[in-house]
């Protein structure tokens, strides 16, 4: 049975990576990776759907057992991508899409280099500013800081396999979908196994 593939989608805050992943899960047969966290659930959160909510003790035990593809501490809470759950799905032939920040993506590139890494870019810095401002939750100083961080994050784009500019959501979703389709046509170990079966059938 062919293994599934891990598609890692990341990019600057406001680029729209979350919206793209959400549409892809609705549109095609792909599972969204669920992260583990020690933060408290918020209204509307569901264990096993939004996050796997665990205690700090439980999280650190998984980390100690090398159970994460990547993990980080953010504002006093831990977040991580459970290795066992992702690998189990991949071994069952399921494709997984993972939305994550750039630092997390770089860690996954080391722990799972077979992943397909897709960088999402906004069409312009002006549009990115507009999107962040539209959230209504950031001060001008924070917005300027985020835009500065974006320029730093873009410098890592050479670590990715693909880049998609998210100007219009559905077009960006279609482009990422096309990448997924193309990757399944790549010559791989699965194809060589199929060729060996052909030989047996002669």
Describe this structure in words.
- This protein is an alpha/beta fold and 202 residues long.
- The protein has a single domain, classed as P-loop containing nucleotide triphosphate hydrolases (Rossmann fold).
- 46% of the residues lie in helices and 19% in strands.
- The protein has helices spanning 17-27, 56-64, 83-91, 102-111, 125-134, 140-154, 169-183, 189-201, and strands at 6-10, 31-32, 36-37, 52-53, 68-74, 77-82, 96-99, 116-121, 162-165.
- The protein has a 5-stranded parallel sheet with strand order 2-7-1-8-9, with helices on both faces.
- The radius of gyration is 18 Å and the shape is globular.
- The model has no long low-confidence stretch (mean pLDDT 91).
* Largest sheet geometry: 5 strands, parallel
Strand order of the largest sheet: 2-7-1-8-9
Q: DSSP helix count?
A: 8
Described by the principal axes of the CA atoms, the overall outline is globular
Rg, Cα atoms, Å: 18 Å
Order of helices and strands: EHEEEHEEHEHEHHEHH
Protein structure class: alpha/beta
Strand runs, count: 9
Average pLDDT rating? 91
Poorly predicted segments: none
- Summed up, the domain count is 1
CATH topology, anyone?
Rossmann fold
Helix content: 40-55%
CATH class: Alpha Beta
CATH 4th-level superfamily? P-loop containing nucleotide triphosphate hydrolases
Distance between the termini: 21 Å
**CATH architectural designation:** 3-Layer(aba) Sandwich
